[in-house]
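In these records, each integer encodes one residue's backbone shape. Here is one protein:

___
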Amino acid sequence: MKILVTGGAGYIASHTNVELLKEDYEVVVLDNLSNSVEESIHRAEALSGKSITFYQADLLDYETLDAVFKAEKFDAVIHFAGLKAVGESCQIPLRYFDNNITGTINLLKAMEEHSVKKLVFSSSATVYGHAKEMPIKEDAPLSAMNPYGRTKLIIEDMLRDIYASDNSWDIALLRYFNPIGAHESGEIGEDPNGIPNNLVPYIAKVAVGALDNIHVFGNDYDTPDGTGIRDYIHVVDLAIGHVKAIEKLNSNPGLVTYNLGTGVGYSVLEIIKNYEAACQKALPYVIDPRRPGDAAVCYSDASKAERELGWVAKRGIKEMCEDSWRWQSKNPNGYNK
């Protein structure tokens, strides 16, 4: 079975490539390398002992995209490609709308043109906005708090409309919570451009001495230690979830939606404590004011994925931090050695 992985050189995608290859899927990656590097593809090949076909191309370039579909004859698509920084999306929303939504429209046009109607979409827990009840279930109300989240919600709505118009499609919407960690080998991991936007890669940069202090945004929330609580999931568990979703699509389920999380929340200070244990050093942090829009607590109910996909997150916070540290300590400058 041949799978197109859009944005396939990125963080979650590179781990998914390894898991797909382990299960003998044929992997074709399309990526414009705007926030990733080709080295991640080569390392996924080395870890799996199998080859990946790579096209450096942009979903906004429909002519090239169409040519790739003509050349490869895909069975299914896993769609990761998209800009993903919440703060940046508030500064340049038009770029996010153009890249994420127009790129997805082009992809869907190519899929329809070439009769490829199996799609796994990389969505996000951001589509729940400020959820009122915990844990969050898939039928919770949906809303967007920022342009990035709005693009995810709009794309979900588009896919629901497409399925309503043509039920020969099989579509899995995967709503991730907070992916962290790295492959246990330390060969592939998260390598963001510039200063990281997310907590754990920021902690990792402090641990290797590239940044001075961890910034903790608010310690006056109604939580046990006053800091925000989130559902962190190991990226390898998340990658395996995509393989399970592809298996599900082969049973022609129609349109299905799953949370991928652990169902367990950890506070910012708990993450720092676990990372200190992993790197065996104290990590300096400073308390900053709360960020606008941040919720006190957010964690998933992932029981539907367990029931219907046979998937459950197996790796705990200790492994998440240890694997992240192994990646960062082996690759202090990311993929640019």
User: Anything to note?
Assistant: The longest strand covers residues 118-124. The chain has eleven helices and 14 strands. Residues 4 and 77 are 5 Å apart (CA to CA).
